[in-house]
Amino acid sequence: MSNVANGSLDFLFRPRSLALVGITTANPEHWTRSFLDAVLEFEFNGPFYLVNPKGGNINGHRVYQSLHDIPQTIDYVIGLVPARASLELIDECATKGVRAIQFCTAGFSETGEAEGTRLETELIKRARKHGIRIIGPNCLGIYCPQSRLSFGPVFPKESGPVGVISQSGGNANYLIRQAALRGVRFSKVISYGNASDLNESDFLEYLVADTDTRVIAMYIEGIKDGRRFCRVLEKATRQKPVILLKGGRTEAGSRAVAGHTSALAGSEAIWDALRKQMGLIQVNSLDELVDVLVTLLFMVKPEGRNAVIMGGGGGASVLITDTFEKRGLKVPPLPHEIISKIREFTPPAGNILRNPVDYSQTMMYPERVAKTIDIIMQWDGIDFLVWFMRMGQSQQAGGLRVNSPMMGGLFSVGGGESSKPLAVVLEPSILPEESRGIFTLLQKYVSSELPVYYSFASAANAIDLVLSYYENRNL
Amino acid sequence: MSNVANGSLDFLFRPRSLALVGITTANPEHWTRSFLDAVLEFEFNGPFYLVNPKGGNINGHRVYQSLHDIPQTIDYVIGLVPARASLELIDECATKGVRAIQFCTAGFSETGEAEGTRLETELIKRARKHGIRIIGPNCLGIYCPQSRLSFGPVFPKESGPVGVISQSGGNANYLIRQAALRGVRFSKVISYGNASDLNESDFLEYLVADTDTRVIAMYIEGIKDGRRFCRVLEKATRQKPVILLKGGRTEAGSRAVAGHTSALAGSEAIWDALRKQMGLIQVNSLDELVDVLVTLLFMVKPEGRNAVIMGGGGGASVLITDTFEKRGLKVPPLPHEIISKIREFTPPAGNILRNPVDYSQTMMYPERVAKTIDIIMQWDGIDFLVWFMRMGQSQQAGGLRVNSPMMGGLFSVGGGESSKPLAVVLEPSILPEESRGIFTLLQKYVSSELPVYYSFASAANAIDLVLSYYENRNL
Q1: B136 shares contact with chain A (CB less than 8 Å)
Q2: Which ipTM value was assigned to this complex?
Q3: Which of A250, B174, B414, B467 could form a disulfide with B325 if both were Cys (CB 3.0 to 4.6 A apart)?
Q4: Nearest Cβ partner for A247 among B248, B259, B319
Q5: Is-cis flag, bond preceding B356, omega within 30?
Q6: Would you call A153 an interface residue with chain B, using a CB distance cutoff of 8 Å?
């Protein structure tokens, strides 16, 4: 089958009926059951059917012994059968009018063994013969909250502006769950595995045209058609910010890629050239990818690189300054007239009124914090403010009292005339007793649509990457 | 007063009696109260006295209105008085036989204001006149679990091999608390602030000679006497591993240093030269410092740079490989004979038997995990094994079931003939419901004396730094 025009891929994201073929009936903890959990949790708005040769039922939902037994045509199949049963499944699908199969099944070319590779080639041959499109194999498929299609039951139900292409299902899960906690919402996420039929270029082209997608993020291990991908990528970067996490950038990493999705990783030099030419935002980890997303989505574009950093802890102040300056961000000294204004209501001991502003002794007085931020925001010399909270700097144990006035000051600013972009560094704690308070605080910041970072270094890194992106495009 | 021979500094760490002067009687949440909490919690084994002009008592402990009222001589004073009362305190101390004052008080030269600087000069002049040694001002003083002296009530009570010099009190707290969670214990920690009398060279010299200290870690913002410091540092690095975190390595960072402890930061070039010449292990953050400590203490010295990485998640496997290889660590492919041996009891689908070993589908079978690790450990091609756990890769929510067999395999290896160094990557979660399980697992690993890292990147970084240290010394 020749390349289908990409507009038509829309049917993948809005199936009218589903079948989960190969779902386990016995063990509710089995990975295949997550797909049913997701269908139920998202209340998929069309008929869905479960299929397993053993028949029976799962929590009252009938399990059909075969696709043939289903009394209507099926649009979209989630294939959970073992690899050896995959060819037969294709033939069955052909008789039921199936337009696409998302093959979760592993055990194909990624095993590096001849039998798996042969099976994958035959799988695609048969699918093409019947005009059925394949996502995968060795993938999790599609998450599209708008059409209530999801491979994870715990993902957000609301849509958002981020479209994701991920060759790895585990990485897609991690990305969605981590980003969701920090306020990011998605238009479409596609986990596409071995990319034997539909590949990264197909999905990227779709996301470029998709009006629900404002930002594109990609985790890619290898490219099926380099020329086409470059063409599509160029179009993409002209229209939307594109963030790329490339897996397999080292020699051993590309061996790991071959074993994971059987892709050819391509040389690091090629990827670097693409990044520079096209203004891709390139990141090195999933966490960095999330950092860039929250910066693009929640940090109002700063006019420049001058930051005021404000929070608790003098030693931390020194280290955060070093971290920011090393990333090309500036931490200019507060001028005398600003310091004098703040000094009027702030004692010198324990509060270092330079930049960073070490407000250890004043954090407890929200009205002073708010007043200080207002004064600083009015100063022409800065472009944005970073607020930081570091647990574990005190000698005492104990959780963060979120209802204490400590953080009140930050919430009462912003929105005024003098308002400038804000960012928050909130460090997670490994201590369970601190973790609840930190999480509550995170949720407060996130619901205020503030960009939250888990470390100084990640904030500096993401803000630099996004500023460089704006600078290169003269935005 | 001329320089006292350093051996004599021992009296600082083993005072026979204490007075906490300037402790707040009214507010139990006030920072000065942590020092009393620490004295009580550590059951300091000598007489201790509380002093505040208001008198009264704190939880039944008498508060003296003045040092003069105390019916015996005092060895060591923790000075919590406001800066303006500091000179008078010195004079009083002189009449009570005090040998050292640890001045927590801030508001001296670090304010950048003339009055503070004048006061600090006068303070040291008077102390020298009376032969009293000063730690600080603007510091937290000493933590020495062996003599039950501590500035934090929640620090570990057991001693250990790590000696720390930290110019910042907040950074010392953070370091002790974070490192303790990962199994590190301390011989002595000194937070020394403005270093007006006793400085970094005095304390470093002491730790070099101290037989309880096997590893030295330093957070330094500026140096009082460069020549002496170089001399002492050279001696230190010849005898013990020395880890340095230098605050104020950028221009703005060194401005922050001036505001924090009034030190002159020195140029980055000088510090880099010192690092290379002396084989210092230089780190960029407190977390990195902890990573290096757990590597030095808990990772048996690997014979080389070849790692097998094993855990759950194919996408993560690719990224961890890239991360390790970029740090100069090697992730060699498993040879065919090793794979065949493992394949005998492991199905191919969902388990990628290359390196990294993606054991997503086998994690639940501890006996298989243990057997696999044993087989891999016997292979000549590797020097150490890194085990990793990443939450949030699955579509499902839910905490980690620590009592599930998932982690059993790892605990049943090690100790055998084939044993090689092990390291564990355990990622924290911001989710309170996952955090308890992860913390329990952390404690299990730590009690097995395994080095635990919170991310791939930090593991790769620390292992590379420590291997480079061994390689440079031909250890």
Answers
A1: no
A2: 0.86
A3: A250
A4: B319
A5: yes
A6: yes
